[in-house]
From TrEMBL:
It comes from Leucobacter tardus. This is Alkaline phosphatase family protein. Pfam families: Phosphodiest (PF01663). InterPro entries: Alkaline_phosphatase_core_sf, Phosphodiest/P_Trfase. One of its GO terms (molecular function) is hydrolase activity.
């Protein structure tokens, strides 16, 4: 967090925070992407979804659907979208995926999934493509609920460490991708009078040398930045939540704001 907020590396994130609200949090389970994203996206804790690493063998995701799937089950008219370059999140050929494909909903036009392979082609190349496809979906379809993932920062942390120029550049690149998505959201607010909730989070931190998976405060730290477009956030907002509580709280905010 201290390498992004208020450092001039992520001006879009800083503006989003100035207009919105910061919730601090700590990873409860292993500080590894598989279990952390499973917890964030499903609301289930590690002992519930059964994921302890990125191989995700023996997972119980069938019992713990992601928030997009749950929303569609509660309201069949809801439209959803997911785009990621990390196969564990969206690729049905990979481990998981954490976000369900829902082929019937894709056929009916209520769900769309973009799954690219940053592990093969590199996230510095794949993240801009994820952003471009997400912009098109937001601009032309305006899904009710979306999840878009950028992984270059994590990748740079592993290869170069968090004090490197490469890590700083990755923060700036991801911040730029975020700015292009917000431009589309703001255009929809102006044109259609829509209201949007924007949430930004991450699955874990890094040690200074790069890497994670341990129990240090640097690895456990995470956050949820939330802002509203076309309306205001509720007056009463929490300052701390557990990652397993993120989607439940955001769902409640969406309901309160009439979404």
């Amino acid at each position: 967090m201290d390498r992004a907020f208020g450092t001039a590396l992520a001006p879009t994130l800083d503006r989003l925070l100035a207009d919105g609200h910061l919730i601090r949090s700590e990873v409860e389970g292993p500080t590894i992407s598989g279990p952390s994203w499973a917890t964030i996206l499903t609301g289930a804790r590690t002992e519930e979804h059964g994921i302890t690493d990125n191989f995700m063998r023996g997972h119980r995701l069938a019992d713990h659907p992601d928030f997009l799937t749950r929303a569609a089950a509660n309201d069949p008219t809801v439209t959803t979208y997911a785009a990621a370059g990390w196969p564990n999140l969206t690729d049905p050929a990979g481990p998981g995926p954490i976000i369900r494909l829902r082929q019937d909903d894709i056929t009916d036009g209520r769900h769309h999934v973009v799954s690219l392979n940053g592990e093969l082609y590199g996230y510095r190349a794949i993240d801009p493509e994820i952003a471009a496809r997400a912009r098109l979906a937001l601009r032309h379809a305006g899904p009710d609920l979306s999840f878009v993932y950028f992984c270059e920062i994590d990748d740079a942390g592993h290869y170069f460490g968090v004090d490197s120029d490469e890590y700083a550049a990755a923060i700036t690149h991801s911040d730029h991708h975020l700015s292009t998505l917000l431009d589309v959201v703001d255009a929809r607010v102006r044109e259609f009078g829509e209201t949007w909730i924007v949430a930004v989070t991450t699955d874990h931190g890094h040690i200074d040398a790069g890497g994670h998976g341990g129990d240090s405060p640097e690895e456990r730290q995470t956050f949820l930045v939330t802002a509203a477009r076309g309306t205001d956030l509720p007056a009463s907002l929490p300052t701390r939540l557990q990652p397993a509580e993120f989607v439940t709280w955001l769902t409640g905010v969406r309901r309160e704001l009439g979404g």
